[in-house]
Amino acid sequence: MLKQIWQWLVRWFQRFFGTGKRQNLTPPPVHREPPPPLNDSDYEYLFMQLLEGVAHGWQQARVLKFFEALKERTSEVQWLGWLHRFGERLLATTSPNNELAARMVQLGEIGCGKIGELASEIGMQLLTRQDQTYPALEFVATPELTYSEPIENFETNIGGFDTSSPDSNAQEAAEVKEFTLDELLLMLQQDPSLVQQIAEQLQIDTTDPQVIIEALVNQFHGAS
Question: Which residues pair with 158 in a beta bridge?
Answer without folding.
Answer: 161
